[in-house]
Prior knowledge:
Elements: H1 3-14, E1 38-43, H2 55-61, E2 65-69, E3 76-81, E4 90-92, E5 95-96, H3 97-114, E6 118-125, E7 128-131, H4 138-150, H5 161-171, E8 177-183, H6 189-201, E9 203-209, E10 224-225, E11 230-231, H7 239-262, E12 266-269, H8 276-286
Parallel strand pairs: 3-6, 3-8, 8-9, 9-12
Antiparallel strand pairs: 1-2, 4-5, 6-7, 10-11
Amino acid sequence: xxxxxxxxxxxxxxxxxxxxxxxxxxxxxxxxGRSLDFNDLREYAAGDDVADIDWRATARTGELLIRRHxxxxxxxxxxxxxxxxxxxxxxxxxxxxxxxxxxxxxxxxVLAHAFGDHAGLLWCDDGSPRxxxxxxxxxxxxxxxxxxxxxxxxDAAPTDLDRLLGTAARTLRRRGxxxxxxxxxxLDPQLESRVRRLGAQHTVLWLxxxxxxxxxxxxxxxxxxxxxxxxxxxxxxxxxxRRDLADExxxxxxxxxxxxxxxxxxHAELGDPATVVADVxxxxxxxxxxx
Length: 291
C-alpha cells in the first residue's frame, strides 16, 4: 500500500485545527519580516531598520527595542533521513525502524503539501547522499519515499550523518525547515557543531528512531547485530544486563535531548507506530517554542 495516502488520512484526524508552524504555507510562519501582524520585541542590533524601533517599549524598559512582525510566505521542507543499515533493524518487537522513519517523513511531507509548501527528501544510497528536488506533488513525494526505502538493507552501507547534514545545508538555498530523522545517535562535538551550523541557516527539528532492546525476551531469537554482522549471545536475556542497558539508553537519550535543547532544536523520539503521526504533528506545533 502506498505510504502517503495511508498517512494522509491519519494526518487529517490528527490536525483538527490550524497547525501553527513553519510548514503551513501562507501562514503565520516562524520567519520574521514585513507584515501587519506583530510577533515580538527584541533588542536593537547593528544593521536593524530604525523604522522598526518601538519607542514606547524603549521608553518603558530603558532598552532600545525593535518590533518584529510575522512574515507570510511559503516554506521549503527538507527531510534528511538516515537509511542504509541504520534503519534495517527493529525499534521494538514487531516494529521496524524503517517504517517508523518513513511514516514520520510521509507525515511531514503531507503537512507541507496541505498548505502548498515544497517538500523533498534527502537520504543515502550506498553511503552517498541523494537529494530529491522539493516538490508540491504528492506523487513525487511518494516516489522519493520509495527510493529511500529501497536503500534500507542489512547489507547496505551505513549513513554518515555528518555528511548528510552537510549536504542538507547546501541543498536548501534559502531559509527553510530541515527535519532530521535518525537512529539512536549520540551527538559528539563534531556532530553538535554540524547541527549548530545547520541551525544558523535553517529551522531544524529532530526525530529519533530508537533501537530495539536486545534483552527483551519478546524478540525471540536468534538475534543479529546488523552493524557487526554477528549473532548476539543467548545470555543477553539477563535481568541485571537489561537494567544496565536501560540505564545506558536513558543516559544517551538525556545527553541527546540536552544537546538539542542547547541548540534550540525541537526533538521527539518515535516508538509506537500508532502514534507516529500525532507525535510528528505535536513536534511541528512545538517549533515556535524552542527557538
